[in-house]
Amino acid sequence: MLRSAFNRSLPLSWRTTLPLSRSPYAVNVARRFLSDQARSQIQKAVTAHPLVVFMKGNPKTPQCGFSRAVVQILDLHQVPPEKMKTYDVLEDQELRSGIKEFSEWPTIPQVYVAGEFVGGCDIVLKMHQSGELEELLEKHHIIPKVADEATANAQAS
Ligand SMILES: N[C@@H](CCC(=O)N[C@@H](CS)C(=O)NCC(=O)O)C(=O)O
Ligand code: FES
């Protein structure tokens, strides 16, 4: 979906030669900025599902250990598939660079909850360990609250 959306919105504009005045070597670098259209496509994508992951590969066959770790953590929380959407950035180089500019975060994977950037692998792992991830997923009704689940189980039995 997003891939074709991206193809339609291309090319991203390039603005060039910002001098790095802080560098002792004063190198000129090319900087790339997201077009408004590409930004709005990403904005739509991250809000279209409660949980959105930009990763390398897909949940069944991740192509990088960092992406794999994020998927495994989300699996531990039993995130239902319908609540989660993943995008394989290896299939779309524009998305791969665009998402980094969007979040101002330089790496993949990237996890979004309720349209907000949460973090990459390290942050998600820390949040998992501290219990914050569970709280966040519960807060946005991505997974049931433990208490709600216990009630549902009691009613079912
Ligand atoms: N410390 C990072 C690890 C992720 C990372 O370093 N990703 C690299 C290698 S997969 C990356 O995205 N590099 C840029 C790219 O491949 O586009 C995190 O917490 O997510
Ligand atoms: S693809 Fe090499 S570390 Fe992610």
What features would you describe in this structure?
It is elongated and about 55 Å long. It has a single domain, classed as Glutaredoxin (3-Layer(aba) Sandwich), CATH 3.40.30.10. The strands form two sheets. It has a four-stranded mixed sheet. The longest helix has 12 residues, at 36-47. It contains seven helices and six strands. It starts with a helix and ends with a helix. The chain is α+β, with helices and mostly antiparallel strands. FE2/S2 (inorganic) cluster binds next to loops. Residues 56, 64, 66 line the site of FE2/S2 (inorganic) cluster.
Give a quick set of tags describing it.
alpha+beta; Glutaredoxin; four-stranded mixed sheet; two-stranded antiparallel sheet; elongated; binds glutathione; binds FE2/S2 (inorganic) cluster; iron; 2Fe-2S; GRX_PICOT-like; metal ion binding; disulfide oxidoreductase activity
What is the number of helical segments per DSSP (H or I, 4+ residues)?
7
Largest sheet: 4 strands, mixed
Radius of gyration: 18 Å
- Beta-strand level of the residues, as a percent range? 15-25%
Give the neighbour order of strands across the main sheet.
4-3-5-6
On the 0 to 100 scale, the average pLDDT is: 84
CATH class: Alpha Beta
Order of helices and strands: HEEHEHEHEEHHH
Task: State the domain count.
Answer: 1
**Distinct ligands, ions and cofactors found in the model:** glutathione, FE2/S2 (inorganic) cluster
Category from helices, strands and their pairing: alpha+beta
Q: Would you identify the CATH architecture?
A: 3-Layer(aba) Sandwich
- End-to-end gap: 41 Å
The beta-strand count equals: 6
Report the helical percentage. 40-55%
CATH superfamily: Glutaredoxin
Oligomer: single chain
Q: What's the CATH topology label?
A: Glutaredoxin
Q: What is the approximate shape?
A: elongated
Protein name: Monothiol glutaredoxin-5, mitochondrial
Domain Glutaredoxin: 52-118
Keywords: 2Fe-2S, Iron, Iron-sulfur, Metal-binding, Redox-active center
InterPro entries: Glutaredoxin, GRX_PICOT-like, Monothiol_GRX-rel, Thioredoxin-like_sf
